[in-house]
Specification:
heterotrimer, A mainly alpha, B mainly alpha, C alpha/beta, A: mainly alpha, Fumarate Reductase Cytochrome B subunit, Fumarate Reductase Iron-sulfur Protein, Chain B, domain 2, 3 domains, 4-stranded parallel sheet, 28 helices, elongated, B: mainly alpha, 75% helix
């Protein structure tokens, strides 16, 4: 006999019609839910997310079906759990479709049957295994929610209802199969390896009872699938639609680039004050969130207990949208939906102040950890900066400390109150002069590398030491370089991230205009914020340059032997730990060059902090935060400094002037300044390199 | 691929489908299936199912795509919330719980010729399935009864004031 | 309530001051000039009063035509309209002429309150507000750090070296403020855009009713005789701590001597 089974075995006419008839209700509910969400997204501003379709599709399959962003080193448990539930469910779903194709298409229409023989046996094996995957995945999720209870996971009724439904569906499947096997007891019954032992047990019962229980469980299973389908769109289970849409229509531009407000002087609305001011893609973003909490794990504000939690911010906007969309405001589990309605509910709320509080918006360091770890490409930082823009540009509201930063940028072209004429004063401390671009251009001298010093490197006394070290390294390596000197201006990064887009545009345009006057091969900068602006934000305003971070250039110089490190240098022989600057690592994916530099230091060991590379915790200085008071929660810089100290290292290697300033404070703050120090990688290299004769006496500072 | 956006726009602009039309479609599909099954035609199943799906999806999409009206239906669901949860839970887990409990009957009435080893595995599986079903369903049920239709906090529990900027 | 604030367009005090040795006058480059930061305090205080009690804030400025850049800044902060007195013959005016010009315009506005900085951040004469109060026949409240208006009465706190003094006057009144009166707001971009459309009433000397001959350098009753650079001497004294605690006494004695404490 060929192995197969009778489809719709023991199912009466009522069931044969019912299975199709009952499709109508969940389909109406599901279609309504999806259509209403898309309808709400369409309230947003236009944005083209339909370019590069083939890349989008390939990437989306990699990140969802193949779990590219779901199973990650930083979230293995959750990733594997999702993989099991996803593939268990998908395989069982495909199994149902296979039966449908056999029963409703190939057999009645073509008279062809494939649901038999080895295919059938393999099918049974896979389906039974898929059921186990689904059950194990669900149990892992249960265990995590009830026993492990990680900080970043909160449980609403919806989460548990869905898990229970998924588990019940799998168990029902085994039972229905078991009852049929108990009666039929095919020779190949053992291929259904989970149901087979159950069937052996059921076999002892009267056949009539087995048939009766089969019917009851068949109906129950059929109706459960319909209930599940109907509930789909009103729970986080909608994420196969919304999250897939979000991954497919994800942002393809560099993560480090914040969108400009085009024609800002004519713009009707500045930033985001109402739901309609977001782009449709941003609204889709908020609906794609199924609150996995990964955005929180490495978020500096969450870790230090501040009001801002990126997950909640996204859910708050999505809850507000639901209120506006009418039907979802009656969403199930609303009272326990921990984040959506954190600040109350109702479609008449103000977005800023009513849905999202101002402290939440100002706490963000724009470190990008949320976006890096979001499995479905939600972009939290642009949402936050959009609302900051409205506060700054339209309402003139922002932390008072920032006023001076804006005034200084306007008047001095730097966040600090130093006249531009003093920008190159640090060069006076060098043994050899540093030429300025204007001089070189006037004398017709070619310049290879333009050293973009940045405001902190120029004016801040601690960061001047980094600048001096880098300049001495470049001089020692014989690099043909020059600086802009007093012509240099801020790239606009702090203003842009604080939300003063107008000022940021003026600063950026000014800088590009200055740079475009000169010819050079590439730019080097020790500031990842400048680096990010030059690399990602300048091209669209006519500034196209090759730019490298100083860690990359130094690494290259060491590699090519232009700098030799002295094994007998006075450099402290000890252990160094390296902190990844957000704007170098997460935003621009440079994790290796600075590490390679640190590892090449003679006599120095390197240890990693628990949170490193893309999981690195921010220093707390980005997004304009360095200029603001930190009044809520624990101090981010101290939290990170303590993490560095706990590695047992004696030195923290920094590669960003913002980090440098934050850690100088942070190390003092935890009272470790006599045993632990922060040094820029340029200082570390300069301290341990073989110096040319004229630099012999010059210490890094 | 700007065309995708265009298609989207066009699809939403053309409102040629009407709600009664969609529902009539669903009814037609049901009729096709019922007649086909009674007559044992077979081919009618996929045709009927397709017609039902198109009709119901179109109906849902149509309502979803129009301006929201104050939804009485959610109020209705809310006021009957606990009863609905109870009935649905019964439909979902009633038969399977009976089945899992009855399974142990097989052990008791089990004849001498039965393969006891496999039967014990069967019992083990039944116990396991019963256990995890009870635990998960009980947690979900109690959460649903307790929390599902509680009204949302209108007054924020957490500080929501504008700080002086 | 109508409040007039004085707004001066001055060379950015953060930049190096350039002095013309022949004219013995500060070189005023409009591209390097800003609204006097000292005036921003007065403008902020005036705006807060107007927001609280209703009314309008009018800025009055005397300076070159380019001074409208400074006025726009005041307008971006919230000032409704402005009067700019600009006339070639005003160049080189002394404090008295300045006060005459400003007060004659202010008088035509008949304000309830006039708010000015204690002194300008370029010339630092500090004489204009007092002269204006005399010419306007208003009481003057100087060095004010907080202003309360109740009906026709103004209650103000005057900054003192070791505290403050509470004084009261009847409206109309002239008030000079210190930096502690209010934190000037940073104008929103929307405010800057709106400021572009606000009216600036530009008047020449004729419109003010002052004879050109008595204004400017020609009419100045004070003359700058000489200008010289300030010599800043850095005096560093290192006190070694020998563990006896004498060093503390020594430092305290020194600071007392220097009148630092």
């Amino acid at each position: 006999m060929t192995p197969t089974r009778e489809i719709m075995w023991n199912v009466g006419l009522d069931g044969q019609i019912g299975v199709y008839l009952f499709l109508a209700i969940p389909f109406v509910l599901l279609a309504f839910g999806v259509a209403r969400r898309v309808w709400m997204w369409r309230k947003g501003q236009p944005e083209n997310r339909f370019d590069q379709m083939s890349n989008r599709i390939i990437g989306a399959l990699r990140d969802t079906v193949a779990h590219g962003r779901i199973v990650r080193k930083s979230s293995l448990y959750g990733g594997i759990m999702h993989f099991l539930i996803f593939w268990g469910f998908v395989l069982l779903f495909i199994g149902t479709i296979i039966v449908l194709i056999e029963h409703d298409i190939t057999v009645p229409l073509l008279g062809y049957s494939f649901y038999q023989g080895n295919f059938y046996l393999g099918y049974k094996l896979v389906m039974n295994a898929a059921g186990i995957m689904l059950i194990v995945g669900v149990l892992m999720a249960f265990y995590r929610r009830y026993a492990m209870q990680p900080d970043h996971i909160k449980t609403a009724p919806d989460d548990i209802i869905l898990l229970a439904l998924l588990l019940v569906l799998a168990v029902q499947g085994y039972l229905v199969q078991g009852f049929r096997l108990a009666v039929e007891m095919d020779e190949w019954a053992a291929w259904s390896f989970v149901s087979y032992p159950l069937a052996i047990l059921f076999q002892e019962l009267p056949e009539g009872l087995n048939r009766g229980l089969h019917t009851a469980n068949w109906w129950s299973h059929m109706l459960t699938t319909k209930i599940f389908l109907g509930y789909f769109a009103y729970s986080k289970m909608i994420h196969p639609f919304t999250s897939f849409a979000n991954v497919l229509l994800r942002r393809t531009r560099p993560l480090g680039k914040l969108e400009r407000i085009e024609d800002i002087e004519e713009a009707e609305t500045l930033g985001v004050a109402r739901l309609e001011d977001f782009t449709w893609a941003q609204l889709m973003n908020t609906d794609a969130c199924m609150h996995c909490g990964r955005c929180l794990e490495f978020c500096p504000t969450f870790v230090t207990n501040k009001p801002l939690r990126p997950r909640d911010l996204v859910l708050q906007v999505s809850g507000y949208m639901a209120d506006k969309g009418g039907v979802f405001s009656g969403e199930l589990g609303q009272a326990d939906n921990f984040a959506r309605f954190r600040h109350g509910s109702g479609p008449e709320r103000e977005l800023i102040g009513g849905v999202i509080s101002q402290p939440e918006l100002w706490d963000c360091t724009t470190c990008g950890a949320c976006m890096e770890h979001c499995p479905v490409y939600i972009e939290h930082v642009p949402l936050i900066v959009g609302m900051r823009r409205n506060l700054v540009l339209e309402q003139g509201e922002f932390p008072a400390e920032v006023t001076n930063v804006f005034n200084n940028l306007e008047r001095m072209s730097s966040p600090y109150q130093f006249p531009p004429s003093q920008r190159a004063d640090w060069t006076k401390r060098l043994e050899q002069p540093v030429p300025e671009m204007a001089e070189q251009a006037a004398s017709g001298t070619d310049v290879e590398v333009l050293f973009f010093v940045g405001c902190l490197g120029s004016f801040d006394s601690r960061n001047q030491r980094t600048t001096l070290a880098l300049a001495r390294i470049l001089q020692a390596a014989g690099v043909n370089f020059a600086i802009l000197g007093k012509e240099e201006t801020c790239t606009g990064d702090p203003a842009k991230r604080i939300g003063n887009e107008y000022l940021a545009q003026i600063m950026a345009e000014q800088t590009v205009e200055t740079l475009n006057q000169y010819s050079f091969k590439k730019i080097v900068t020790a500031c990842p914020h400048c680096f990010n602006a030059i690399a990602n934000e300048f091209p669209e305003i006519g500034g196209n340059y090759e730019v490298v971070h100083h860690s990359q250039l130094i690494n290259e110089l060491i590699g090519s032997g232009k700098i030799r490190l002295d094994p007998n240098s006075e450099m402290m022989k000890g252990t160094v730990t390296y902190h990844d600057p957000c704007y170098l690592g997460r935003y621009n994916k440079e994790y290796d060059a600075p590490r390679s530099v640190v590892q090449s230091l003679p006599g120095t060991g390197m240890v990693e902090m628990p949170r490193n590379r893309n999981t690195a915790l921010c220093c707390g200085g980005g997004g304009g935060r360095m200029f603001m008071e930190e009044t809520r929660g624990a101090r981010i810089n101290q939290t990170r400094a303590q993490e560095a100290i706990d590695t047992g290292a004696q030195t923290l290697a920094a590669a960003c002037p913002f980090c440098m300033t934050m850690f100088e404070d942070g190390i003092n703050g935890v009272g470790a300044d006599d045993v632990f120090e922060v040094k820029d990688i340029a200082e570390l290299v300069y301290d341990s390199m073989v110096k040319p004769p004229d630099q012999e006496t010059g210490a890094a500072d | 691929m700007a065309s995708l956006a265009t298609i989207w726009g066009r699809a939403t602009a053309n409102r040629k489908v009407s709600l009664p039309g969609c529902l009539a479609f669903v009814a037609l599909g049901v009729l096709i299936i019922a007649v086909g099954e009674v007559q044992d035609w077979g081919w009618t199943r996929i045709v009927g199912a397709t017609v039902i799906s198109i009709g119901s999806i179109a109906a849902g999409a149509l309502i979803g795509w129009s301006d929201p009206v104050r939804p009485r239906i959610t109020y209705l669901i809310s006021s009957w919330g606990k009863a609905i949860v109870a009935i649905l839970t019964l439909i979902i887990v009633g038969p399977m719980l009976i089945a899992l409990v009855v399974a142990f009957g097989g052990l008791i009435v089990g004849g001498a010729e039965a393969d006891t080893g496999l039967m014990l595995i069967g019992v083990l599986i039944a116990v396991l399935l019963l256990g995890i079903t009870l635990v998960t369903v009980a947690s979900a049920f109690s959460l649903a009864m307790r929390g599902l239709w509680r009204s949302r906090p209108d007054e924020a529990g957490e500080t929501n004031g504008r700080h002086s900027a | 309530m109508k409040i007039v604030v004085c707004a001066k367009f001055i060379p950015d005090p953060n930049l190096a001051l350039v002095v013309d040795p022949d004219k013995k006058r500060v070189v005023r480059d409009p591209s390097q000039s800003i609204l006097d930061p000292g005036d921003e305090f007065g403008i902020e205080a005036a705006l807060q009063l107007a927001e609280k009690h209703g009314g309008e804030v009018v800025a009055v400025s005397m300076g070159p035509e380019s001074a409208d850049a400074g006025i726009r800044r005041a307008m971006a902060m919230g000032v409704e309209r402005a009067i700019l007195i600009t006339d070639q013959s005003l160049e080189g005016s002394d404090a008295l002429t300045t006060a005459e010009v400003l007060s004659s315009v202010i008088a035509s506005e008949a304000p309830d309150i006039v708010v000015t900085a204690t002194e300008s951040t370029d010339a630092y004469t500090g004489m204009v507000p007092g002269a204006m109060a005399a010419m306007l026949d208003m009481p003057q409240l100087t060095f004010v750090r907080s202003i309360e208006v109740d009906g026709q009465t103004v209650t103000a706190q005057r900054d003192y070296e070791n505290g403050y003094q509470t004084v009261r006057a009847a409206l109309p009144v002239l008030i000079t403020v210190t930096a502690s009166v209010a934190e000037p707001r940073y104008p929103s971009f929307k405010g800057m855009m709106q400021a572009k459309k606000k009216p600036i009433d530009t008047r020449d000397l004729g419109a003010v009713g002052i004879d050109a001959g008595s204004a400017g350098e020609a009419g100045a009753r004070e003359k700058v005789l000489d200008l010289s650079k300030v010599q800043i001497e850095k005096q560093t004294r290192v006190v070694e701590d020998d563990g006896t605690g004498d060093s503390v006494d020594e430092i305290v004695a020194y600071l007392k001597h220097a009148q630092a404490i």
